[in-house]
Structures are given as C-alpha cells and as structure tokens.
C-alpha cells in the first residue's frame, strides 16, 4: 500500500498532464484506518429507499461496505451476519449536506481556526478547503449523530471564486485527506451578489455587481488562455516523436517544457473541462441568470446554486438546464438578497423537476437536516403541492448526491451502493426522530445507545456524548 | 378592539391542568369560559348560543388541538425589516453611550414590518422586542402581532431591561452593573444630587429612573450567559442585588440547574444549541431544557430569531425530542414568558385571559402541523403575509 500512495510524489517536472498534477495534490500521507464493516442485516423496520420504494417491513443487507440487498419481507439467508432488529423504526440512506463549513469554521469559534475565507483577493480558485479542514472539529460527530454521512465543506462566500470544495465523510481522522469521499469529483465555490462586493468594496473592488461579473469573466478568459497552453503541451506529449523524426526534419512545434503551474488556473481549467463542479453561492433570480450567462459564455455547466432563495422564480430555466438548487427550508430576511425567500420554494422547485438539496450552512442545522426537509415538505403540502416522503427524502440524500457527482455511489438504498445508512427512532419527518444508528461505508459510526467522543478537543472538558 | 362571541368545540385543548377535549368560549376579546361541558352554551344545527345570545360555532376537525397564542421572546420584531440593511431597522445602536437604560426600543416598533405577518401565520401572537448593544441596552416591550398602529400593537413598552456582561471581564462587568444599581438607589433618595459625570459610564437621570425600576423589582433584568460558571456568578450576583433576573442562552444551564432554581433565576433557552459553538458552550447538550425544567428553573424556549420566530413551536418540539415533557414545552412558549414579562392574563387558556387562541391541525409542536384558525383579542386573523403574495405570483405555470 505505501508504495501506491507515494508513487505520484516528487516528479513535477516530468508531468504529462494536468490530471497527473491534480492527483499528486491529493496524495495521502498517513496509512488508512482499517474499520470493521461486518456483514449486517437490518430487519423489520420501514425502509425508505429514496429511490421510489418504501418497504413497510423491509430489510437492508450490508456487506463489505456496500449494500448487498434491499427489499420487503424476510431477508435473504446471510449466515454469520449481525442481525439488527429495527422493528418500529425507520431506515433511510445516509444524509448528505451540500453546504457546510464544518472544519473550516470549526467549533468552538476561534480566531485561530477561522480558515474558511481567503479574503486576500476576490479571486482565489487555487485554495482548497481540504487544506483548511480541521478534523478535530466537534461538529463532525454532532453531524453524524444527526444522520449525516457525507458533507461538502466549502470555502466561504467572500470571494467571486473562493476555492475548491471538499466532499468529505464525518469520520475520525488525523488529517483531512483521510476524510475524503472516495473518488468524488472536485468542486469549486463561487459567489455572486452582495458578499464579494461588501468584502472588497473598500479594498480595491469589486464594489458592484457589474464589478463582480467583470472579475469572474476575466478569470475565465485567463483560464482559457492557460488551457490553450496546456493543450499544446499535452498534445505534444501524446504525439510520439522519437524514432519517427528523421535527422533533417525541423524540430517539432510547441513548447519543450510544460506551462508554468498556476493553481488558480488549474482549478478554472478543471471547470472549463467539466471535471470540477461549480457550486455557486447566489440568492437572487437575476443574479443566478447572470451566472448562467457567464457559464454559457465560457462553455461550462453550473452544477448547483447555493442558498438560491429566489430559485423558485426561475425554476423553468433551472429544470431545462439541469442546474440544481441547494436551498434552506425557510431562512429569509437576514439580508436583502434573502428577502424574497418563501417556504414553498423547495416544493415548487422539486415539483418543476429541479434537483434540489436542503442544505444547512450551519453547524446546528446540519444536526437535523431531516427536520428541515420535513418543514419544506409541509410547506409544499399546505399549498397543495403533493410531495411524497420519498421525494422529500431525496432532497437530503439522492439529489445532493447528484450535486456532488457521487450519485452512482451513494444517496439511495440500492444494491451495489456504498452502505451509508441511518436507522431512525421514528419517522424521520417527525420532530421527535433521533438517529439511532449511522453507518458509513458499512461501518457503524454512531450508536445512540453507546455514543463516544471523537474529537481530541472535547477530552477533559466534562463532555458526555 | 372588540370581538364577538366564538365557541370552539371538540379540540384537544391545552389547559393549565393539561390537555383535554374541551370547549373554549371567547367574547369581547377575552376568554369567557373553558370546560369539557359548559351548561350556558347550547349548540343546535351548526349554531351556538352563549348565555342565550348568538355565538359563532367553530367545530374542530378530527385531531385538532387548541392552545394559547405562542410568544416569541426575545426578538427584534417590528424593529428590523432586513437584517443587514441598517436603513431598514430602527434599533441600530448608533449612540456611543454605553448606558441606555431609559431607551424604550418599541418607540421604534413598526407594526407593518413584514416579519410580523410571516410569524403570525405560524401561531405566534405575541412577542417581546428587545434592544441590543452597549452595556445597558435599554428596555424591551411586549407587542401584539396585530394592528396597524403602535397604539394597537404595543401592549407594554417596558417589560424588561436588557444588559450585558462582557465575558472577558466578568467580575468587572458585574461590579459595574452593581455600581449602576447603587447609583439608581442613591438617585431615588436624592434626585437633586445628580450632576453630570457623577454616575458610572455617563448614566443620566432618566437612566437612573429606569434602573430604579429594576431595583424595585418592577422590571426584570435580562442578561445573556451560556457557561456554567457565568450562570453561577449571575445567581450569586442576583441574590446580592435582590433583583429579578432572566438569563438568555444558558447553554450549560443543566450543570448548575439546582443553583439557578435556588436563586430564582429564570432562563430562556434555545434547545437546538448542541455545541460547542463557543468556548462558553462546551457542555451544551440536547436535554438541557429538560434538566432545567426538572430542577424547577422557570423555563422559556426561544428561536432567538426574528424572521424565523415562526419556528418557535418547532424549537419547543426539539426540546421534547431532548426529553422535556410536552406540556412543559408548550408552557415554555406561552404561559411562562407571559408571566415572566408581567402579562399574567396572556399565554393561557382560562376564563378572563386575553383571547389569543390558536386552533391547530394537530400537535402544535410537530413540524407538519398547521394553523387552522387564529384569534388575537378574539378576532380571527387573515393568515396571509408578503410571502403568501410572492407564492401566489410565482406558483402559476411558467
């Protein structure tokens, strides 16, 4: 194993491609922690798959970190399995929060750990949230106790392009990379509207929304030029020369050296190539439409708007383009951008075919994302929008999984997917529901009957889990 | 405002004695009768008569429940339209003066502020609007979430005095508060002795009069504190100064619950705080409210929010999730805040009380429950807000 992790290290000069460089940046130092993910059968509870099925007396079989089987009635024979009776309880996929600052703005709030906003320049696509994530944040264990099995840790919204997001597991780790969701695509945080112009208005700009757009357009213009230089280099690398060139042929065209590295540009080229998924903090309908125009101009797709309090006003546009919206159930009015939020927004979006996530953006909200989905569902039902529990469950499981590009791996209870599973004490849409058992990759990471303290910070502070 | 007779029958009514299927009759803006059977009420063919006079009959649907209107405290209701826009708020603490005891923040109450209707349609009928900032922030007032004028909406413009104790200089902060109270006592004895610069932190004569109301226990003092050690210090200070004290936050209150109960300190708690958001919340836990209640500490539950004060009932539901008795949770958002802030005839379903009454589709503390009908001063409310209009504008096909 050690050989594998070290294989990519230390040969920057002979890099063949941006992809090589990217992989080296994520190489892990420490050995992975082995955790037990025993063959387990959850049996007798209501199984809500978030894939269209609700099994009133269902079962889920977990094996080798994956879901082996899901269904109604008696489970298949599984000799040697740990059998967990979940009669009277509810089983769902692990919850996914597309918008968190755990780890980068950890608890307790402290100057020394305010690592979420690189407020030194309005455009900083080259910073990575995984480099700011403090794995000892007690917020992670509070989140998993609320049924969270995956979260996107994002830089703040001070910057027009704020840096890479980090799709992570809330699991104990010594360094952030050990928390990385396996094979998740990279993401980038961008922001429109009030925040960048407020932060930079007195610090050289942007000071206006038009200044915001200029800053973003200039960044992508620079990225296009950078991409052309890399394309020329990569093309040259892909064309074998030695042996084919005769002695008196002219030397090949193009550079002999790879372009100088530029971390900001590497991220933006990833966006232009569709490999890095843009996650754009943007509240108002007109601002979101400007961001879609930006995406059209430079030929990339927005994966999800975040906060998106007016997304319901442009739900036809979002649905047609398959752009998702990560929204709150009911936050509004704390700033003018959020003045037109309505509690029916999520239901309107979902009803129009837009993929949505109910996100938290809060160390407290992430502990009860199920309740937030419940509120959004109830608000829709009050005005006659028929939202099923399966659909509302998808807002905190399957649809956020798509937003993060990991929907082939998690987000529903289906055979073959990662065994990210929550057993609830009651219907998860009830205010009384508690996560009893939370499995990540088949490993029991939270047991309400026997909770443990993970964070080193909490030791010796009298904290009982 | 006067309102006619309404009899609500068939709902599970949350009475001071507990939940029971009962009839509640309102007339003239007050609750006039509550009971399982009311001999003076006759109902026939969908119509009712109360003491022989016509009375509107409201028959609760299956599963419906009836409570007093909910109370949001503390809040900035009517003071803040949009949080980050100073131009839209009346409580911007521009004045550098750290002691503003005489300030009555509801002088800046705008009864047409849009969060009021947004909040009201979720069963909240009353709020305490409070000032912030400074060292002694000023006085909060009790407001009714109805009416188009201050005259209709402001029930009492001075129900609490808000102060702060700096965490980083706790002993000094408490001593300064004591100095102010001592000055108020002095001033009460000899108002003619006041001269500028003589009393702490620029406190003027009107401040000293307001502080004297605290000394005389006509006004409770409200102070924020989360850490157990801060709460203990406040309990000791309260006993020394002999004032009525309401502590907001109290995230670690469970650790010193008996001490708070013994000192008669009341608390306003957000049961969602499961820290450690700050160094003073390290031992916050989900059963904090339940443990405080069990120790006998007067308990109020709060969102500590204005725009989302509508979630008061869900926050109380979360306290039940953390182990608090359901009726205790309900009292903590109705009867207890009314009593602590000097409104004993509000927040309770009993004859003589103000007819702020909410009929719910089910358990008011459960997320999926909605308001069926809401009466303030016995008058039915129109359950619409700016958000309703936005929804209607955008809910059609696009």
Summarize the structure.
With 465 residues, chain A is of the alpha/beta class. Chain A contains 12 helices and 16 strands.
What is the average of the pLDDT values of chain B? 95
Strand content bin of chain A:
15-25%
Multimerization state: heterodimer
What's the number of extended β-strand segments of chain A? Answer: 16
Q: Which stretches of chain B of 5+ consecutive residues score pLDDT under 50?
A: none
Key descriptive features of the protein:
heterodimer; A: 465 residues; alpha/beta; TIM Barrel; eight-stranded mixed sheet; 16 strands; globular; B: 398 residues; Urease, subunit C, domain 1; 2 domains; ten-stranded mixed sheet; 11 helices; 18 strands; 26% helix; 26% strand
Question: Can you offer a commentary on this structure?
Answer:
The complex is a heterodimer of chains A (465) and B (398). Chain A is α/β, with parallel strands linked by helices and 465 residues long. In chain A, 26% of the residues lie in helices and 20% in strands. In chain A, strands 1, 2, 3, 4, 5, 14, 15 and 16 form an 8-stranded mixed beta sheet that branches. In chain A, α9 (345-351) packs across α10 (369-382). The longest helix of chain A has 30 residues, at 209-238. The radius of gyration of chain A is 23 Å and the shape is globular. Mean pLDDT of chain A is 94; it is low at 1-13. Chain B is an alpha/beta fold. Chain B starts with 5 loop residues before the first strand and ends with a helix. At the A-B interface, α10 of A face α1, α8 and α11 of B.
């Amino acid at each position: 194993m050690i050989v594998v992790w070290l294989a990519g290290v230390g040969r920057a000069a002979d890099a063949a491609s941006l992809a090589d460089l990217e992989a080296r940046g994520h190489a892990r130092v420490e050995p992975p922690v082995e955790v037990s993910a025993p063959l387990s059968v959850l049996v007798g509870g209501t199984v809500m798959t978030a894939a269209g099925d609700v099994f009133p007396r269902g079962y889920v079989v977990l094996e080798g970190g994956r879901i082996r089987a899901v269904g109604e009635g008696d489970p298949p024979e599984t000799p040697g399995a740990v059998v967990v009776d979940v009669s009277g309880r509810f089983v769902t996929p692990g919850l996914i929060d597309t918008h968190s600052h755990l780890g980068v703005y950890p608890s307790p709030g402290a100057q020394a750990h305010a690592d979420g906003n690189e407020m030194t320049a309005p455009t900083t696509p080259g910073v990575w949230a995984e480099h700011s994530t403090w794995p000892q944040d007690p917020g992670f264990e509070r989140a998993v106790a609320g049924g969270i099995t995956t979260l996107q840790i994002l830089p703040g919204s001070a910057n027009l392009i704020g840096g890479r997001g980090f799709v992570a597991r809330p699991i104990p780790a010594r360094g952030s990379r050990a928390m990385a969701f396996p094979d998740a695509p990279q993401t980038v945080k961008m922001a429109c509207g009030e925040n960048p112009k407020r932060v930079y208005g007195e610090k050289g700009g942007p000071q206006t929304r038009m200044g915001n757009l200029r800053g973003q357009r200039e960044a992508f213009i620079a990225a296009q030029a950078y991409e052309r230089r890399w394309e020329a280099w990569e093309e040259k690398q892909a064309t074998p020369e030695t042996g084919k060139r005769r002695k008196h042929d002219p030397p090949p065209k193009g550079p002999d050296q790879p372009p100088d590295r530029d971390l900001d540009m590497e991220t933006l080229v990833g966006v232009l190539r569709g490999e890095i998924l843009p996650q754009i903090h943007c509240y108002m309908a007109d601002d979101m439409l400007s961001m879609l125009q930006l995406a059209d101009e430079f030929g990339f797709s927005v994966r999800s708007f975040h906060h998106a309090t007016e997304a319901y006003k442009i739900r036809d546009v979002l649905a047609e383009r398959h752009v998702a919206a990560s929204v709150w159930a009911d936050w509004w009015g704390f700033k003018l951008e959020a003045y037109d939020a309505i509690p029916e927004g999520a239901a309107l979006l979902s009803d129009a075919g837009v993929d949505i996530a109910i996100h938290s953006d809060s160390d407290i909200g992430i502990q009860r994302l199920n309740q937030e989905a419940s509120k959004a569902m109830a608000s829709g039902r009050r005005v006659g929008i028929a939202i099923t529990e399966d659909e509302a469950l998808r807002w905190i499981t399957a649809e956020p999984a798509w937003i993060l590009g990991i929907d082939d791996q998690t987000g529903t209870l289906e055979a073959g997917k990662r065994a990210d599973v929550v057993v609830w004490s009651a219907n998860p849409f009830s205010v009384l529901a508690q996560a009893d058992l939370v499995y990540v990759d088949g490993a029991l990471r939270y047991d309400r009957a026997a909770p443990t303290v993970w964070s080193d910070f909490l030791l010796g502070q009298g904290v009982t889990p | 405002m006067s309102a006619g007779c309404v009899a609500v029958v068939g709902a599970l009514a949350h009475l001071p004695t507990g939940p029971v299927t009962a009839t509640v009759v309102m007339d003239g803006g007050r609750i006039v009768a509550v009971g399982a059977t009311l001999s003076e009420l006759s109902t026939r063919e969908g119509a009712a008569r109360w003491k022989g006079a016509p009375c509107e009959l409201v028959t609760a649907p299956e599963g419906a429940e009836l409570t007093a209107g909910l109370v949001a405290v503390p809040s900035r209701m009517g003071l803040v339209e949009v949080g980050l826009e100073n131009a839209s708020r009346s409580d911007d603490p521009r004045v550098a003066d750290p002691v503003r005891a005489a300030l009555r923040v509801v002088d800046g109450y705008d009864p047409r502020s849009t969060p009021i209707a947004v909040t009201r349609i979720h069963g909240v009928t009353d709020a305490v609007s409070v000032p912030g900032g400074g060292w002694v922030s000023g006085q909060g007032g009790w407001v009714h979430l109805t009416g188009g004028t201050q005259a209709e909406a402001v029930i009492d413009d001075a129900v609490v005095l808000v102060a702060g104790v700096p965490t980083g200089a706790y002993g000094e902060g408490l001593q300064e508060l004591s100095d102010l109270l001592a000055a108020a006592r002095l001033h009460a004895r000899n108002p003619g002795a006041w001269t500028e610069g003589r009393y702490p932190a620029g406190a003027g004569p009107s401040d000293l009069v307001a502080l004297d109301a605290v000394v005389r226990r006509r006004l409770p003092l409200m102070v924020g504190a989360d850490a157990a050690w801060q709460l203990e210090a406040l309990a000791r200070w309260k006993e020394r100064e002999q004032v009525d004290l309401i502590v907001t936050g109290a995230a670690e209150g469970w650790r010193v619950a008996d001490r708070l109960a013994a000192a008669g300190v009341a608390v306003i708690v957000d049961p969602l705080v499961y820290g450690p958001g700050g160094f003073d919340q390290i031992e916050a836990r989900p059963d904090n409210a339940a443990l405080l209640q069990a120790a006998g500490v007067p308990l109020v539950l709060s969102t500590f929010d204005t725009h989302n004060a509508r979630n008061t009932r869900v926050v109380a539901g979360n306290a039940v999730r953390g182990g608090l008795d359901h009726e205790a949770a309900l009292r903590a958002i109705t009867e207890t805040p009314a009593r602590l802030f000097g409104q004993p005839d509000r927040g309770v379903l009993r004859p003589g009380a103000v007819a702020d009454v909410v009929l719910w589709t089910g358990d008011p503390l459960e997320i999926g429950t909605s308001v069926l009908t809401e009466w303030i001063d016995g008058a039915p409310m129109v359950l619409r807000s700016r958000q309703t209009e936005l929804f209607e504008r955008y809910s059609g096909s696009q």
